[in-house]
C-alpha cells in the first residue's frame, strides 16, 4: 500500500475513534460527538470544533422562547387574569438564562477537559506499560459519547417521563398564559408549544449533560483502576493529581444553569404567592450541597490510590531520613568528619533542610484530588443565581453593606 494512502487510512480511523495518538497520548473531547452534534454540524449550527456558538444560541433559544412570547401575547389568552407570560420569572430563567448557559458550557468543558486526558500521560501518572489499558478507557468513553441509542433513549425519556410528570402535576388553581384553571391539559396555543417543544428542548439538553457526567466519571473510574504513578512529595500536595480537581470548574456553568432554574421557581413563589425566601433556605442549601457532591464526590474514587501513595511515601522518606540523620550525626555530632572540613559552608545542613521539606510535603499530601478552594468556587457558582432574590428581603443598600461585611 502506498505510504500516503496508508497514512490517510490511519487518519480516518483516528478521526472516527476520537483519538489522536501523538506520542502515545490520546486526545479526547467529551462534547465533540453524538447524534445531536452531527445534526447541528449538518444544519450549519456548529463547526467541527464548536464554532458558530452565537448562531447556535440564537436559533435554539429562539425556538424555545420566541414562539411562547408571540403566542402568549397575540393569542386569545393574552389578557388572562392569572399569571401572564411576561411576568413568569420561571420560564424566562429557564429559557433565557439556563438554556443559553447549558449550550455555551460546551466550549468551557471542551477547553478544560480535553487537555486533562492527555495530562495523565504527559505527567507520567499513567506509565507507558499501562497506556494500552488507558487508551481502551478513552475508546470506551468515545463510543458512549457517540452512541445513537443512548441519545435516542434520552429523547424518549423526555417525552415519556416528562409528559407523565406534567400530567401528574397539581391542577392549576388559576388561569395562566399556558393553561386554563382546573385542567392539566386545557392548554393554550402557547401552552402546547411550551409542553411539547420548549420544555423538551431544555430537558433534553440538560439530560445530555447528565449523560456526559456519567461518561466522564465512568472514564475516571476506569483510570482509577490502573496502577497510577503517584508521588507523595509532589508540590501540588495531591501526589500529582491536583490537576484533576481543577476539572470540576469546567462544570461550573452547568451548576449555574441548574441554580438559575431553581431560582426561577423560588422567585415565582416569592413574588406571586407571597411566600418568604427564608422558607426555602433548607431547599437551597440542600440543592447546593447535592450538586457539590455530584461534581466532587466521584473524584473520591482516587482516594484509595492516593492514600496508599501517601503511606508509601511517608515510609520511604522515614527510611531515607533515618539513614541521612544517622550519617549527619556521625559526621558532625560525633566528629567523624575530615579535620580540614568545616561545617560552615557545607551543603549538609541545606540537604537536611531540603529533606525535611520533602518529608513535610509527603506528610501534608491530601487523599482527595481537590481542595477547599475548589469546593468554595463551585458553591459560589451554584448559589450565584439566588443572589438577586435577596432583594426581596433587603434593600439594595442593605444587601451591599452585608456583602461588604462578608468580604471585609
Average residue-wise pLDDT: 82
Share of helical residues: 55-70%
Q: What is the tally of beta strands?
A: 0
Gap between N and C termini, in Å?
71 Å
- Class from secondary-structure proportions: mainly alpha
Uncertain spans, ≥5 residues at pLDDT below 50? 1-26
Strand content: under 5%
- Tell me the overall shape: elongated
Q: In sequence order, what are the helices and strands, one letter per element?
A: HHHHHHHHHHHHHH
Q: Into how many domains do the coordinates divide? A: 2
Largest sheet: none
Radius of gyration: 28 Å
Put simply, the count of helices is 14
Give me the secondary-structure topology:
Blueprint: H1 3-17, H2 35-42, H3 53-74, H4 89-122, H5 131-145, H6 148-167, H7 189-224, H8 242-246, H9 252-272, H10 281-296, H11 303-333, H12 348-363, H13 372-383, H14 396-407
Helix pairs in contact: 3-4, 3-7, 4-7, 4-9, 5-7, 6-7, 9-13, 10-13, 11-12
Description:
By secondary structure, the protein is mostly helical. The chain has 2 domains: 25-308 and 372-407, no CATH class; 313-363. It has 14 helices and no strands. Helix 6 (148-167) packs across helix 7 and helix 10 packs across helix 13. The model is unreliable at 1-26 (pLDDT under 50).
